[in-house]
Amino acid sequence: MAEASPPQGQFQEWVDDNIAGWISGSVSIIIGHPFDTIKVRLQAGHAQYAGAADCLRATVRAEGPRALFQGMLAPLISQSAMNAVTFRYRLHTCASSGSDSSDPRAAAGPQHVEAGGAPAAL
Questions:
Q1: φ, ψ for residue 72 (rounded to 5)?
Q2: For site-directed labelling of 12, which of 65, 70, 84, 122 has its Cα 20 to 30 A away?
Q3: pLDDT tens-place string over residues 3-26
Q4: Whole-number Å distance between alpha carbons of 18 and 91
Q5: Are 30 and 91 in contact, with CB atoms under 8 Å apart?
């Protein structure tokens, strides 16, 4: 016997959840990467900066604003994909356990621990 495919609504929900996770992961990388770039330049110590603002000014003046986003492609792809999996897995686990994932006071049961820890194995 042929296995029945999931209903169209269920597939659309899966697609929507993965896209939402991907977008949220992408936005966090795009916003955070310039801060990380400045932090790394300060920690490397190749040049003397008076602080983070001085490092930002010197970097943008010498290399342009694109320098703040150099090396962003790999984390953008990997973290966005991981966030999409984590987002979908958590929603699925909370829904299957019958808990209301929007209630921050809900007690964390074994399903929530699994939902939080399993994607880390990826």
A1: -85, -20
A2: 122
A3: 555 566 778 888 888 888 899 899
A4: 10
A5: no
Q: Could you tell me which residues come within 8 angstroms of residue 19 by beta carbon, excluding any fewer than 6 positions away?
A: 84
Report the candidate in 71, 91, 108, 93 with the shortest Cα–Cα distance to residue 24. Answer: 91
What is this structure's pTM?
Answer: 0.65
Q: What are phi and psi of 20, to 5 degrees?
A: -60, -45
pLDDT tens for residues 61-103? Answer: 999 999 999 999 999 999 988 888 887 777 666 666 665 555 5
Rounded-to-10 torsion of CA 85, 88, 93, 98: 170
Q: How many residues does this entry show for the chain?
A: 122
Q: Which residue has the higher pLDDT, 84 or 108?
A: 84
- What pLDDT score does 120 carry? 64
Nearest CA among 96, 113, 117 for reference residue 10? 96
